[in-house]
């Protein structure tokens, strides 16, 4: 069996046991790599760059559900609006407003997650707790806020990672009280998804553990 398919089957088994859904992160990976697991039942793929995503969308089967997980500039939303399945990385009201506008133009409600800043690293994007509380989903009728997303600090310190995921889970539970249709908590990547699952994640975004290391850096 192909190595990618083998990796995929192993991880999928582990996730299914925990009722966690998988977004296979395919940035910088070829259409052939994507197809190798699409053919055995993986339909959710995540990308970080608009241009790359649009090209793959055009070339690959139309029943793939494309997730956008990278930092998104407002002026690029219109390229994704007609087809994107879920935008994980909504990190400002400005972006939310533009997604709403493009949803209206395209006659569709666009599903989104709000990205929350939980890491100590300044470089990571996202709302803080107070900003999150001030978002009024009813102001964005062409957006469906499906839940929250976050990235932990990149560190060997598993206690810290666990605490950050725990914090996000708490915010998710609070957010859900006011927004009962928000059911997705997207947290966990190749190096920390097992910790994320113990802290209540129900969607993980895994790239290198399935497809192997990327030849280009992720950002
Ligand atoms: C690249 C990326 C991932 C996947 O990273 P791996 O370590 O390869 O699993 C997940 N989430 C986001 C936001 C990413 O940018």
Name the descriptors.
219 residues, binds pyridoxal-5'-phosphate, TIM Barrel, 9 helices
Explain what you see:
The protein is of the alpha/beta class and 219 residues long. The protein has helices spanning 3-17, 31-38, 50-59, 77-80, 93-106, 129-133, 158-178, 193-198, 208-211, and strands at residues 21-25, 44-47, 65-68, 86-90, 110-116, 143-150, 184-187, 203-206. The protein has a single domain (2-209), classed as Alpha-Beta Barrel (TIM Barrel), CATH 3.20.20.10. It has an eight-stranded parallel sheet with strand order 7-6-5-4-3-2-1-8. The mean pLDDT is 96. Bound molecules: pyridoxal-5'-phosphate (PLP). Pyridoxal-5'-phosphate binds at residues 25, 27, 48, 69-70, 151, 189-191, 205-209, 218.
Question: What's this entry about, in short?
Answer:
This protein is an alpha/beta fold. The chain has 9 helices and 8 strands.
């Amino acid at each position: 069996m192909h190595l990618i398919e083998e990796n995929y089957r192993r991880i999928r088994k582990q996730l299914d046991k925990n009722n966690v859904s998988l977004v296979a992160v395919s940035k910088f990976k070829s259409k052939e790599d994507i197809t190798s697991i699409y053919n055995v039942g993986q339909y959710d793929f995540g990308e970080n760059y608009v241009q790359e995503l649009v090209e793959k969308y055009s070339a690959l089967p139309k029943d793939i559900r494309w997730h956008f997980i990278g930092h998104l500039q407002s002026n690029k939303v219109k390229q994704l609006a007609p087809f994107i399945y879920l935008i994980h990385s909504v990190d400002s009201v400005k972006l939310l407003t533009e997604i709403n506008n493009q949803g209206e133009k395209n006659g569709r409600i666009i599903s989104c997650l709000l990205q929350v800043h939980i890491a100590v690293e300044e470089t990571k994007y996202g709302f803080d707790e107070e900003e999150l509380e001030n978002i009024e989903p009813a102001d964005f009728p062409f957006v469906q806020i499906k839940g929250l997303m976050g990235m932990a600090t990149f560190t060997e310190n598993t206690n810290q990672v666990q605490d950050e995921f725990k914090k996000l889970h708490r915010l998710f539970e609070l957010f859900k009280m006011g927004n009962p249709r928000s059911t997705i908590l997207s947290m966990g990547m190749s190096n920390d998804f097992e910790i994320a699952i113990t802290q209540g994640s129900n969607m993980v975004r895994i790239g290198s553990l399935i497809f192997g290391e990327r030849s280009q850096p992720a950002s």
